[in-house]
């Protein structure tokens, strides 16, 4: 079952920052390619959220799925997949999520 994919404002800002950083460092073509691949992962997660790791230690449990240098942070139910953040794996993502 395909869930509706919902991006929070923070996740949209993360995507903008990823594109900006990637285009400055590796060029627009590479930045677009990275985001297209990330979009495919988000759609895969909407169909199969169980492939991601559940992290119950947060106030509200979340799922994490790695994508290259980033982590997709989301919650889901039968109808929706809510992408909360897309954070760099080396960032203090635990601190970001506890705020």
Structure description:
The protein is an alpha+beta fold. The protein has one domain: YaeB-like fold, CATH 3.30.2310.20. Helices cover 44% and strands 29% of the residues. The protein contains 3 helices and 5 strands. Strands 1-5-4-3-2 form a 5-stranded mixed sheet. It is globular. The mean pLDDT is 92.
How would the blueprint of this fold be written?
Blueprint: E1 4-7, H1 9-26, H2 28-47, E2 53-55, E3 62-67, E4 70-76, E5 80-88, H3 93-98
Parallel strand pairs: 1-5
Antiparallel strand pairs: 2-3, 3-4, 4-5
Helix pairs in contact: 1-2
Kindly name the structural category.
alpha+beta
* Main sheet record: 5 strands, mixed
Specify the number of helices.
Answer: 3
CATH T-level fold name: YaeB-like fold
N- and C-termini, Cα separation: 32 Å
Strand order of the largest sheet: 1-5-4-3-2
What ranges have pLDDT less than 50 throughout 5 or more consecutive residues? none
Assigned CATH class: Alpha Beta
| Strand residues, percent | 25-35%
What's the total number of strands? 5
User: Which homologous superfamily in CATH is the superfamily?
Assistant: RelE-like
H/E order of the elements? EHHEEEEH
Mean pLDDT: 92
Radius of gyration: 13 Å
Helix content: 40-55%
For the record, the CATH architecture stands as 2-Layer Sandwich
Integer count of domains: 1
The shape, in one word, is globular
Could you state the oligomeric state of the chains shown? single chain
């Amino acid at each position: 079952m395909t869930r509706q994919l919902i991006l929070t404002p923070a996740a949209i800002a993360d995507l903008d920052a990823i594109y900006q950083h990637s285009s400055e460092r590796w060029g627009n073509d590479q930045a677009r390619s990275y985001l297209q691949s990330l979009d495919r992962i988000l759609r895969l997660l909407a169909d199969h959220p169980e492939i991601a790791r559940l992290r119950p230690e947060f106030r509200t449990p979340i799922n994490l799925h790695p994508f290259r240098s980033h982590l997709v942070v989301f919650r889901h139910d039968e109808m929706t997949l809510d992408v909360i953040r897309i954070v760099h794996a080396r960032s203090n993502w635990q601190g970001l999520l506890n705020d």
